[in-house]
Amino acid sequence: MSDELNIIEEQAQEGMDKAINHLETELIKVRAGKANPNLVDGLVVDYYGTPTPINQVGNITVADARTLNIQPWEKNMLQPIERAIINANIGITPQNDGNIIRLFMPPLTEERRRELVKRAQAEGEHSKVAIRNIRRDAMEQIKKLQKNGLSEDIAKDAEKGIQDSTDKYITLVDKHLAAKEKEIMTV
Length: 187
Description:
There is one protein chain. The longest helix is centred in the last third of the chain and has 38 residues, at 110-147. The strands form two sheets. The protein has a four-stranded antiparallel sheet, with helices on one face. The protein has a two-stranded antiparallel sheet with strand order 1-2. It has four helices and six strands; from the N terminus they run H-E-E-E-E-H-E-E-H-H. The protein has two domains: 2-29 and 109-185, Orthogonal Bundle (Topoisomerase I, Chain A, domain 4); 37-104, Gyrase A, domain 2 (2-Layer Sandwich), CATH 3.30.1360.40. It is elongated, with a radius of gyration of 22 Å. A hairpin with a 4-residue loop joins strand 5 and strand 6. It is α+β, with helices and mostly antiparallel strands. Helices cover 59% and strands 15% of the residues. The chain has helices at 2-29, 78-88, 110-147, 152-185; strands at 44-47, 50-53, 58-64, 67-72, 94-96, 101-104.
């Protein structure tokens, strides 16, 4: 029985870790007015009929705090990259000079900063819901084991362990959100 409990706890831990990793990935995509190559992660370009990540068709560099340069390895990829950025609706219009595509990060207005904070908080809420769902599933599995002969004391201890993990991960989500909010609201 204790092996089964360990498996349940490990699965819950792994699921919660994945929720935190997903939150970190999503928060990187919420731009805070600074140029960051991760801003274009996940964008796909039509490369000779094949959807290809943008970082596999060109070199992405940070020119300065507000400028991102994309140097395609083939000149004929300028238009598809530009189209992919426009279609992604990331709030930046690409500047194409025939060799390089430049993305100038406009300074954020107070209203836009608040929108970005709301978006970050929504991502945080999704992560919290995912963590709570993982907790619920683990608790149900422990209750099933209890019906199949697991002692009540051991079940209560396991449930307490799952709850402690849940609380730890919810606090971690809040810390990530607070840091991101501070980053966004800093002018």
